[in-house]
Structure formats: structure tokens, C-alpha cells
Sequence to fold (149 residues):
Amino acid sequence: MKSSMRFIKSALEYRPIEEIVVVPRGMRGIYALYRKAEGAYELVYIGMSGRDANGRIRSRLIQHKKRKVEGWTHFSYYEVWDNITELEIRELEGLFRQLYRFSSGANSLNRQVTYKPLLAVRKMTEKELSVVPINKRNLGLQIVDEVSP
Fold:
């Protein structure tokens, strides 16, 4: 079946960790790790695979299973079309990480940092709209505001 979406070619969501074996090899895109607890799926990590034409979502999931098996129970993946560049995959990953970076449950496996290109866009927009720039202080947070490329 062919996806009608512009970026996403195929997707599998909220699958138990044991089902990594059904993930096809050679996929590029975004993946998410969740911890199922008390009837909810808590997002704990977002990652990407797009470093080469062959992709590595499956191998990234296997690596996480070996290193962080106690921290997550389920996964989702979102394979991108072949014409989507690595830079576009990074931008999607950066946006998704930014959306949940201050969530108390989402940062248990890794510390999310500000996505540098998005930070530049946000600062430009704040200036254009003449609004007070947002920062950890006026958000009332004690989190170090790191920046990732």
C-alpha cells in the first residue's frame, strides 16, 4: 500500500519491544521510544536514522534495546520517502525533540537540548512580532538551556 503523505512512507506505532524483529531493514526516518505505565505511553526518547541511503532504524532500535532496555517498553517508527534528505529528517527530529524537551517524563533516557536552527527561527519570529523572548527563567524552569546543531 502506498502512503499518501508527503514525508512519511510507512509507520508502525506503539509496538512492544519484542516486535523489533518485524521492523524492515534499511529504513530511514524518525523513531520514538515509550514506557508503558498505568495505561499510558510516556515518550522517553526520539531519534533519527538518515545517515546513509540504506537507513538504520532497526539497528538503532536494537542498540537501544541492548543499552536502555529498562527504560522503555514500546517503540514507534516513521519511515520517510527516499527523496527526503538527511537535513529534512534532522529538522523533523529537532522539531519533535523541541516539542517535548521540558516534559518531566520525556527526559529520563536523554537530556533534550534546543535544536539550534529552530532556536534561530524562534528568535527571529519573537523579534519580528515584538514579543518578549522566551527563556528558561521566564518559563519558570531550572533546566540548563543547551543547544544542539
Summary: The chain has a mean pLDDT of 79. The two ends are 36 Å apart (CA to CA).
